[in-house]
User: What shape does this take?
Amino acid sequence: MRGWPEGDHTPAGRVLVRRCTEADVAALESGEPPGSGYVRGACARQKEGAVDFLVVLVDGAPVGSAELTHDDPPELKNLGVDEAARGRGLGAAIVRAAEALVEERIPTVAVGQRALVVGVGLENPRAAALYERLGYERTGELSTTTYTYVDSSGITKTATERDEELIKRW
Ligand SMILES: CC(C)(COP(=O)(O)OP(=O)(O)OC[C@H]1O[C@@H](n2cnc3c(N)ncnc32)[C@H](O)[C@@H]1OP(=O)(O)O)[C@@H](O)C(=O)NCCC(=O)NCCS
Assistant: This one.
């Protein structure tokens, strides 16, 4: 499988997408605002069996992540790649690895019975464009999510986001 688990050699370096391990946590946390707790939370969700917490590594260094839920259909959440590493196909590599994991979970089904869902903020057309290039279709299903996050200066804020659901079936 491309990018999972052996890794691909690309101009960006050796790219590997796999589940997060304890060894990745310090490096992932170093890119977080102080007090964010996101990486610890995602690791805890993975331990509980609610998600696969996927990380993309370039030459062994984690530079991005996403969570693949175990819902039916599964959802890919919180996709993010470090700003300095964007535009080199790493976001797409995480999405493809998530699709490969879905295939691993559901090995034999009729075409069109596997599905992966993503929610994309209405104010994020570039992310929507990335997903559409990868075969995801807009559904017109809108949802409103209110969440708290820690900004780059360590201040906890609340935000409300309108998302559209995109889905890929294969
Ligand atoms: C979206 C994101 C994960 C893509 O990662 P990436 O490694 O740059 O992705 P790829 O190199 O595989 O693909 C590049 C495409 O991603 C999209 N993209 C690039 N920068 C982006 C940004 N700042 N925000 C959203 N999408 C972006 C564009 O469609 C881009 O294609 P283009 O250069 O032709 O416009 C990354 O930009 C990111 O972390 N953005 C901030 C968080 C976010 O918006 N997450 C998506 C939530 S649904």
About this structure: Residues 79-81, 86-92, 120, 124, 126-127, 129-130 surround coenzyme A (CB under 6 Å).
